[in-house]
Task: inverse folding
């Protein structure tokens, strides 16, 4: 059995907007089930840090960026499609 690389994720949200909260909940549940202790999640609130969103070129929220392992992948939306999420994160056999 090979050890999986730690997955680094950054989720951009807009405060407590419904889609943002839904994305956070869905991502946390997905990671708990499929990645266990093998992930690091940073949540960036673009309302509190608008400059960061501009610097990182994030125009829509919620936006999830898988930073590592390569390749970098971006998903925009409330993460309601587990198959898309799994493929982007390189998890499982969906």
Result:
């Amino acid at each position: 059995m090979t050890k999986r690389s730690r997955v680094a994720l950054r989720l951009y949200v807009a405060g407590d907007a419904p889609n943002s909260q839904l994305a956070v909940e869905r991502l946390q549940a997905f990671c708990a089930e499929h990645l266990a202790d093998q992930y690091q999640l940073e949540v960036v609130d673009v309302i509190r840090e608008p400059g960061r969103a501009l610097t990182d070129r994030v125009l829509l929220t919620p936006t999830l960026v898988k930073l590592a392992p390569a390749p970098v992948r971006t998903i925009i939306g409330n993460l309601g499609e587990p198959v898309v999420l799994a493929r982007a994160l390189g998890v499982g056999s969906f």
In short: The beta strands are 7-13, 39-45, 63-68, 73-76.
